């Protein structure tokens, strides 16, 4: 059983995999182009999910399973994968802790005006006249009530926030007071103090937030996007802050990454930019490889029905 990685994990992870699966032949490459000669014999490919193309899938004649060590799958060549009936799994769920903590951190940063506090400290200014607020009693709407969204709601409940969520069915999810669908969530927008987007990039979610949605929101509301950059057009966001339709926008994801240094987001006072790091902590790879190890054990024992996070290649998630 030949397993190739299209990225290079730390030596401790490499040794751990080889110790747990002595019968597997592991090969580790810094990038996909270095793995070209190994592709034809690879039964399993482990990837970050952004480097495989139709050509790689075609070249990998023995390929049966792709493990994506991230949650995002929008760059996967699913058509080629479906044609060869290749199994795909991902690391869904590993991001919920860091991304939920990151989100609560941004909400607290805004409520307590920590950006302004830091600026005052740098300038040696003593002023207590800052428009601070509380999360207690505030209303939160989470677009995407999956593993990450429900963890955000769980933490929000610790601050006594009112929580509403969006999913595909509208069925209730733990830690949410109310649940909506893509066709009904608009009715909650006027009540939301914080709107957090954790949605994947799909045909159903691309550019779904428009000017009309920001028109419905409080002018003090905060929008946080940690999902995907194509949820809303950049021009819509710029208009929302320039016309004071919304209190503040925090963006961790963008249509084009890295965000160009001359992009207007960087200098817009009403927008705070972070470089797509909401999920990144030192626990990222241990969590991802733990899922891979559990799945590899099931795969090795011909018990694919026990594998975690199996992806519907038709739907792309």
UniProtKB/TrEMBL annotation:
Record-level Gene Ontology MF annotations: NAD binding; oxidoreductase activity, acting on the CH-OH group of donors, NAD or NADP as acceptor
Annotated D-isomer specific 2-hydroxyacid dehydrogenase catalytic domain residues: 12-304
Keywords: NAD, Oxidoreductase
InterPro entries noted in UniProt: D-isomer_2_OHA_DH_cat_dom, D-isomer_DH_CS, D-isomer_DH_NAD-bd, NAD(P)-bd_dom_sf
Source domain of life: Bacteria
Domain D-isomer specific 2-hydroxyacid dehydrogenase NAD-binding: 104-278
Keyword Oxidoreductase: yes
PROSITE patterns: D_2_HYDROXYACID_DH_3
SUPFAM superfamilies named among the record's database cross-references: Formate/glycerate dehydrogenase catalytic domain-like, NAD(P)-binding Rossmann-fold domains
PANTHER family with a match to the protein in the record: 2-HACID_DH_C DOMAIN-CONTAINING PROTEIN (PTHR43333), D-ISOMER SPECIFIC 2-HYDROXYACID DEHYDROGENASE NAD-BINDING DOMAIN-CONTAINING PROTEIN (PTHR43333:SF1)
Family note: Belongs to the D-isomer specific 2-hydroxyacid dehydrogenase family.
Protein name: Phosphoglycerate dehydrogenase
Species for this entry: [Bacillus] enclensis
